[in-house]
Amino acid sequence: MKLTRFEDIEAWQIARKLCQAVHQIISKGEFAKQYALKDQIDRASGSIMDNIAEGFDGGSNSEFARFLGYSQRSCSEVKSQLYRALDRGLLTPTEFQQHIDLAAECHRRIGGLLKYLKSTASTRKSSCAMPYSS
């Protein structure tokens, strides 16, 4: 299946779920009062999906791969911030595990897409049929 919209990329869909899940936890309780951490994790989680979208419109596989790398790094940043939140008592162990698992799945899916892009010889993203599942 050829992808024509970034919204069809599973990694982007999972990144969107992660962004929504992060918003849920930062909007309640003590987390909502931790302005610096709240802002940082919110921006990092949004950056994951934004970089996938931006890279998709980059015009080449190498440009797309570069932005996917940024997305993976933002995933790692979200994971680190989740540990900070856990250590500060802002998340229960169950909440932490749910979110860290979602971030790890997102990171893995982006990695799968990156691996695929690096294995293609095509220079134009639009000229290759990218798999629906990463």
Can you describe this structure?
- With 134 residues, this protein is mostly helical.
- The protein has a single domain (7-119), classed as de novo design (two linked rop proteins) (Up-down Bundle), CATH 1.20.1440.
- The chain contains 4 helices and no strands.
- The chain starts with 9 loop residues before the first helix and ends in a 15-residue tail after the last helix.
Strand content: under 5%
Q: Care to count the β-strands?
A: 0
Give average pLDDT, whole number. Answer: 90
Order of helices and strands, N to C?
HHHH
Radius of gyration: 16 Å
What is the highest CATH level, the class? Mainly Alpha
Unreliable spans: 121-129
CATH homologous superfamily name? 23S rRNA-intervening sequence
Largest sheet, described in full?
Answer: none
CATH architecture classification name: Up-down Bundle
Q: Which class best fits the helix and strand makeup?
A: mainly alpha
